[in-house]
Design goal:
Elements lengths: L9 E6 L5 E5 L19 E4 L34
Pfam families: Zn_ribbon_8
Organism: Parafrankia colletiae
Protein name: FmdB family transcriptional regulator
């Protein structure tokens, strides 16, 4: 039984012919090395790797910044840097 039934990862692709960017949803055990045709039908595509942003969501409170104590540096604000 899958840990998250119904959720399928999305992979980003870019067409080398028409420069279109598009997503393809494939199962995690699917062959992701096989080229995915772009919306225009070109097979010369490549998978794009992108950064993933994760947020805490609207229901979780944001953590407040630690107050600067003493003459601390910008690295920690705790006064240990002198």
């Amino acid at each position: 039984m899958p840990a998250y039934p119904g959720l399928v990862p999305a992979y980003e692709y870019r067409c080398r012919v028409c420069d279109a960017s598009f997503e393809v949803r494939r199962g995690i055990h699917s062959d992701t090395t096989t080229a995915a045709p772009c919306p225009a039908g070109h097979l010369e595509t490549s998978r794009v790797f992108s950064a993933v942003a994760v947020s805490r969501g609207a229901s979780a409170p944001a953590m407040a910044a630690a107050p600067a104590v003493g003459g601390g540096g910008a690295c920690c604000g705790g006064g240990c840097c002198g």
